[in-house]
Design goal:
There is one protein chain. The chain has helices at about 15-25, 75-85, 105-120, 130-140, 150-175, 180-195, 205-210, 245-250, 285-290, 310-320, 360-365, 390-405; strands spanning about 5-10, 30, 40-45, 50, 65, 70-75, 95-100, 100-105, 200, 215-220, 260-265, 270, 305, 310, 325-330, 340-350, 350-355, 365-375, 410, 420. The chain is of the alpha/beta class. The strands form five sheets. Strands 9-7-5-2-10-1-11-15-19-20 form a ten-stranded mixed β-sheet, with helices on both faces. Strands 14, 16, 17 and 18 form a four-stranded mixed β-sheet that branches. The mean pLDDT is about 95. The longest helix has 22 residues, at about 150-175. The protein is globular. The chain contains twelve helices and 20 strands.
Length: about 425
Amino acid sequence: MPATVVVGTQWGDEGKAKVIDLLATRADMVVRFQGGHNAGHTVVVGDQTFAFRLIPAGALAGTKTVIGNGVVLDCETLLREIDMLTSRGFDVSRLKISGNAHLIMPWHPILDTLAEQRRGDAALGTTKNGIGPAYVDKVAREGLRVQDLLAPERFVQRLHTVLADKNELLTKIYGVEALDEAAITAQYLDDFAPRLAKYIDDTVGIVNDAIEAGEDVLFEGAQATFLDIDHGTYPFVTSSNPVAGTASAGSGVGPRHLTRIIGIAKAYVTRVGAGPFPTELHDDIGQGIRDRGHEYGTNSKRPRRCGWFDGVMMRQALRLNTLTELAVTKIDILDPLPTIKVCIGYDIDGERTTYLPGDLDKFARAIPVYEEHQGWLTDLSGARTLADLPPLARQYLDRLGELSGVPVTIIGVGPGRDQVIEIPA
């Protein structure tokens, strides 16, 4: 397996963790390259369910795992995940964390929450975990990094400087209490640093050494293409770049190493939070998909908006990520539907287009143009080969591949680790 990037092609929750868990069994290393603990990756192994927010989902396969420099790290969440895995018999000693990754500090979730409250009806629907404010500080060059945990004097100095500004913002603008500098220092240097020190390393060297040695390296992204800060439905986006190109910047690996790029898509589309969604279903069909697919946030528990597969979005995702293949998950959720629709274009202000408009207002006015497919009305959960699928399900998957411009090579037919069909590319 070449150096492989796995990315979501919709608005997240496509089932990346399931595909990563599958591929990680053949990989030597799994690298998380962006995002924070607002990402929720769920893996089902037998009767056990594992929910990951920071540690790469490939950890269950026993591979070397890396949290790259593009991630914003919440120490408390990470330590809880380490403890969870350890208590359930998994070895996390091979985890490495980039010293260049930025820390989520106590003021970040507070500012995230307060900003959302001030927006009122215009709220973005953030998870309030502080991801956006942490990236703001990173870009403003005010952030504290993981490596600062290993340099107490530098940590104290940087904290003192940054916290003075943050406390002024908290007290004078938002009218809330100031944060205690001594308490933060003690928490990070006395509690977090001793436990995390053994995992902190030069991950750029580690990952590049692995690739140069011929090891199979898998790059794991969080969120998805249309939550990208540049290419998504701004401002209803995340605060980083979940597209495939970020695997280079977020891990310190040159782009020529990335030769296999797998896009993950549900057989339908979901979205959490606000923002335009042309194929959204506001009827019993949408509710049925939500209930059968358990479409509620892994972390937030918020109900996900559900809609038909959008081929226009997929065409854009292909361009933005240069996909080499597609994994389609949750096709089994469509089993009971007699008719399944697929969006093949938009009608915007009376004009037909098969391309995603760059203007958000136009996108919000897009009326989907559908083609209808006959449902297969068969339980697919037991299928393990392509031959096990009924012809109508295979026709549907073939059409998704046509709209995506790349072959479908992985098909998810249920939540279990073994409920998957692989097709040679």
